[in-house]
Amino acid sequence: MKYVDDFRNSEIARGMAARIHRAVERRRRYRLMEFCGGHTHAIARYGLTALLPPQIELIHGPGCPVCVLPVGRVDSAIELALDHGVTLCTYGDTLRVPGSKRMSLYKARAAGADVRVVYSVSDAIALAKAEPAREVVFFGIGFETTTPPTALALAQAREMALDNFSVFGNHVLTPAAMRHLLAEDADQSARLDGFIGPSHVSTVIGVAPYRAISRDFVKPVVIAGFEPLDVLQSVLMLVEQINQCRADTENQFTRAVTEAGNTRAQALVHAAFETRDSFEWRGLGAVPQSALAIRSEFAQWDAERRYALVPRVAADVKTCQCGAILRGCAKPSDCKLFATVCTPATPFGACMVSSEGACAAHYQYGRFVAPALSSARAPRAVTSA
Amino acid sequence: MKYVDDFRNSEIARGMAARIHRAVERRRRYRLMEFCGGHTHAIARYGLTALLPPQIELIHGPGCPVCVLPVGRVDSAIELALDHGVTLCTYGDTLRVPGSKRMSLYKARAAGADVRVVYSVSDAIALAKAEPAREVVFFGIGFETTTPPTALALAQAREMALDNFSVFGNHVLTPAAMRHLLAEDADQSARLDGFIGPSHVSTVIGVAPYRAISRDFVKPVVIAGFEPLDVLQSVLMLVEQINQCRADTENQFTRAVTEAGNTRAQALVHAAFETRDSFEWRGLGAVPQSALAIRSEFAQWDAERRYALVPRVAADVKTCQCGAILRGCAKPSDCKLFATVCTPATPFGACMVSSEGACAAHYQYGRFVAPALSSARAPRAVTSA
Amino acid sequence: MTALPTSPRQPEFGRKLDLKQGRIDLTHGAGGRASAQLVAELFAPAFANEWLAQGNDQAIVPMPAGRLALTTDSHVVAPLFFPGGDIGTLAVNGTVNDLAVGGATPLYLTAGFILEEGLALADLARVVTSMAQAARAANVRIVAGDTKVVERGKADGVFITTAGVGVVPEGVRLDGAQARPGDAVLVSGALAEHGLAVLSQRENLGFDSSIVSDCAALNGLTVAMLAACPSLRLMRDPTRGGLGNTLNEICAQSDVGMRLDETALPLRAPVRAACEFYGLDPLYIANEGKLIAVCADEDADALLAVMRAHPLGRDAVRIGTVIDDAYRFVRLTTSFGGERLVDWLHGEMLPRIC
Amino acid sequence: MTALPTSPRQPEFGRKLDLKQGRIDLTHGAGGRASAQLVAELFAPAFANEWLAQGNDQAIVPMPAGRLALTTDSHVVAPLFFPGGDIGTLAVNGTVNDLAVGGATPLYLTAGFILEEGLALADLARVVTSMAQAARAANVRIVAGDTKVVERGKADGVFITTAGVGVVPEGVRLDGAQARPGDAVLVSGALAEHGLAVLSQRENLGFDSSIVSDCAALNGLTVAMLAACPSLRLMRDPTRGGLGNTLNEICAQSDVGMRLDETALPLRAPVRAACEFYGLDPLYIANEGKLIAVCADEDADALLAVMRAHPLGRDAVRIGTVIDDAYRFVRLTTSFGGERLVDWLHGEMLPRIC
Amino acid sequence: MCLAMPVEVIELLPEQRARASVDGVTREISLALVDNVVPGDFVLLHVGFAIGKLDRAAAEATLAQLAELGRQPGEGATP
Amino acid sequence: MCLAMPVEVIELLPEQRARASVDGVTREISLALVDNVVPGDFVLLHVGFAIGKLDRAAAEATLAQLAELGRQPGEGATP
Ligand code: SF4
Ligand code: SF4
Ligand SMILES: [Mg+2]
Ligand SMILES: [Mg+2]
Ligand SMILES: [Mg+2]
Ligand SMILES: [Mg+2]
Ligand SMILES: [Mg+2]
Ligand SMILES: [Mg+2]
Ligand SMILES: [Mg+2]
Ligand SMILES: [Mg+2]
Ligand SMILES: [Mg+2]
Ligand SMILES: [Mg+2]
Fold first, then answer.
1. Which residue from B96, B338, B364 has its CB within 8 A of the most atoms of ligand 2, so it is best to mutate?
2. pTM of the prediction?
3. Distance separating alpha carbons of residues C43 and A95, to the nearest angstrom
4. What value of ipTM does the predicted structure carry?
């Protein structure tokens, strides 16, 4: 795969790792948060931690748009599908996300809801066009990367006067979450020495939003591609900034991120969405200015208005350590539920929901010494493939 | 079964048969048409022909409301189900009735039509009530026996303002068909010495309509129950009338038929239906005044109007001898198609469609010496139950 | 190594399957953790036996000497539960019986489940329990299985396909082609009860009656019959298509006809009444615990005596005789002394108005 | 008697089945004339063999000495036809392979069909023809079958449940519980091609590629492997759940762990690309013509040589080693020299955005 | 023909409905097409509706007639 | 994370659509979110949409940097 495999060269990776080893100052700690699940994935998938010197600590951030979907929004999606009888079109990632009372869209389907996995919002538009008697709701989730297609769908729906289509909007904003992590308490800010900045999000929003963060919080940010060499190079760039006491925003992912980003996509998003005052993130709680709402011009295509959804408040599971993990204050193995009752098949918290979540990644890729395993000792399988 | 098994006593039947043997005049022929399929069924099912003296010839009439449904009306039912996308509720008997181009409601189902077998028109009403988004059409077929429930359903639909329900009306009138058989040509009339008159039809319409026929055509009619002893007694009564040169209408089925019939049912039918000028009968062609149309007061619940059905004219299969058989001029075994390509599984004509049709009854119950069998010599079954 | 148990084990499942409130969803069919849990917590304990417990892609089982009998049936009944049984009892007994009527001793079953998303786990558990009970009663082991889940609207609750393996003892040679003119035709009991028990539960058609499915495993009865009657030509269970269709199959295979005596046909009063209600012919309605036997005329009485001594053959009767007939017709002498044909079933048995 | 043929025969069917334009309707499942015609004109000629032709409720077949292997799988793939095969080839090969990987010689299959009303007869005929071809290729006989028809919307075209019977030669003892630390883990060829070939045909997901299902019968390959390698511990076909799930099953059964080498995993370029497109992990995607083998380390090279000499094992490679591991983890050494777990599959493999 | 059978009404239900029974088989039927039915009456049932009452006296009379007519000549029948 | 991958546009289609290809796997994508794409261009594909163009010169430059940075000390790297 061109422009993919090149960035997975293990020979170069070893050289990069050696260079990082040489670059770190022996007594110093480098606490770097990779904001995005994509980076978490690359780190776990390629075992990058093992290549890095002990001075570097990677902290998993809240950068998985599926994981951070709060219980209340999942409940509303289930309400749409079960109680309002709509056909809910969704990306495959959301099916296992837990709502309250152990519900999920998988279970809602089993209970009779019409929930369909789509690869693209275009599939939902096509379904609504083909079957005018069906009410189609698209479950819009995702960061700035995924928002432009949803914005385009809203524009198309209006243009086509497609009145059996609407969007349940849950798009969230990454810079707001980064700011929140840094602003919430001084300790937190003090614990982070720099950010590995979003990759594909930045393709859309460009470099500018991070420059402001670097300046406001005096933190270095390096926008990094999702391939393992991208991550290593960005770590090196952060180490160098920290050594030099700089706090700039730099761009490692120059092949896909420009200063201004994708202005066409930004304009589409701006036309269809406005910023919410506040939005709940699973694990983080309410984060100001961190999500988008559909503009009133599109009220007819806004499922929240169309079905008069009442905001649902539902608490995260108490013993779940996600909040601390997402803030960089705890590790998955610190959670009592990890790999006992909370597993990728039966996730409790944000971090276990998507395979990119910190707990899921640790479960799948990093659980070399697992905690005491559950005592379920079931008989062997009757069926075999 | 009380009032059923009593009328199936074979001991008494043998005595009745002996009495009929004694009653017939040796040189005379008694050509008796049993109008109803119910009688045809009893005759075949109990092997009554074998009990009767050779002087008595039983001729099968057109008395099966399913068999006489013409191709065009079946085509319209299929059109409703396939092209108008309605849910067509029907009695189970109609599924195999052939329309044109080898279609049937069975095949329409296979092609995607929503065709549901109901036991009663009430089931269709209940479905329409329960699912307001569904257009439910009841395929109303049958003689005077089956018409009152349909009339009641129309009245209920109006009362409940049930606007997703309608009736595709094909109810037909037996006295009109009897008159037609007698009136159409003098030969035909001359060939019949008397009628075994309808049983459950008469429960509804009473005795009066037949009195007029007896008078107008000088033919004896005996209204007879459907059990074998009823048939035998009625044959005896007809033999006696013929011997005495009488042409009266008599009532053997006194336990269920009164002079006036069921006036409540008649009133309901009259309120909902009016007589059609003419109606096509499979095998008989157009028969004047022989069927009911839904009155204009119920236009909204009349599927013919609601879906603007264009009357379809489609010819019966040419080589089919049904017309002659229904007129009493031929027997099933006279037809080249009988038991070769025309079988109960693949019926061509009216007489093979329902198990009460003359050809089907002969196939099922009376085909002791079959014609040359088809040469299909397929290998044995792979599946077994 | 730590003190972990040394026996093989499943992945961790987190919480247990909710067999009361839970439902089948697509993950139960995806072959991963949820599939393994369904097997571990439901199927394996219910069907427990050493071969199943091997957990391989195939069960490897011992086999006594003799020829092998193989059969399969897919089961799709609606509703899943009916008076006298459910799809689980049916799936076991239907396949056991197809082995038994071949003279085989049923030994092993396999079971393939196709589950519809949304199926209540409680219903599945009930069905599986029924299967386990029926298998114990019939003395067969369910040694291999498979489970697939399809989306809602792409199945109807649960379909179960069972296959059966039995061994045919030396000297036993039953065959549908062995009926000879003069042979006696016997039936082991009252007809049409399974089909009507199912029908009685259908929406819109529902009626109340004492009719209960006759669903049962016939291998006990067939063993007794084989031991008692060396002239036994064939046995068959008149399931789908009923007595009428099954006898036509035998006539076609053996190139003979049959003459039945209507007055001998064992029909209970509620069965006759329910058939009269809906215009159904009991001769074409399914049985799931009855068999037809054909034997030499002279052995018929002795065989009937043996059948009647078994609980499942208490009402066994002779219903007719095999005849020579170029057309291979099944002819019925009516109670009136007339005759009619009992033809192959055409179409379905549906409630009729005429 | 007249000059009628003396061989058994079907009822008259009137006109022949329209295998071009016709569709399955409910009468084809009612057990009467239409059912018999479907069997006579489609299934019987396609699967023709003497046991099937007996037309009894069970097939009675000869059986060589040895232990018996039994297996079953239900097949529910959508769409029914995909590059490289269809549900018919799958239904035969899937069951043949479950026998073959147990060291058995597959001999007999049974097939239960559940058909949806409205299924095009042409599609059914195509599937049945594929089954017949696959059975011939695998040298197995389809000796018993069953067909049910359910109403439109209560199935998905056609479901096929096959059961398989094979014989395990003396001396062959494969078992998923026999893997021992130090053993070599081999795979017979490139991974994930069946699952992706099916996915490529799904509406909304459709992509074009050269990816073709690997669906094939492995019994030729397994015979060669058994002959060549006395230390063969076990074989398994990594179907639903893919390599990842299947290796976890083996580790659970054998109470061991495994260490795989990522660079050794055979993945063709289009498979890697398609997985990248949709966020799928090829380790969990189904194969239908591949097997995993575990053997003593010292025999691995010889076994690989034998496998590579067979057309279905041309790309066989060693992918890892069995290790002692209390947690029975499958660990993958990444191309970067890191390590990750290859866990049991959880949920389904669905296209993802993140 | 028109399938119909005599059934005994065993219980009146609201909305002109009733339970009817034959040989231990019972189901709900509609009485909307007939007047003055009470439990114990027999009605003629067709497609779920009573289409007429059965006149038990007439039934018995017919049966008596049939018994008489069906008696073999040697059995001392009245003419 | 947000799954996205570089794909090569091989054919422009009507309505701002295109065929894209990676290693012999092709599918239709939407170009509605990007400007001035021509066949041969690489775009970043996410949920069926090109969300940005890939700057091939920048990519090559990064690769060159990486090759340089990744060279082991003994290999004669420039600082
Ligand atoms: S293991 Fe589960 S419960 Fe614990 S922090 Fe992670 S997601 Fe939350
Ligand atoms: S056998 Fe068929 S074609 Fe011939 S008259 Fe009877 S119904 Fe018509
Ligand atoms: Mg397998
Ligand atoms: Mg399986
Ligand atoms: Mg059977
Ligand atoms: Mg069968
Ligand atoms: Mg069978
Ligand atoms: Mg069976
Ligand atoms: Mg369903
Ligand atoms: Mg299997
Ligand atoms: Mg298999
Ligand atoms: Mg379907």
1. B338
2. 0.91
3. 26
4. 0.91
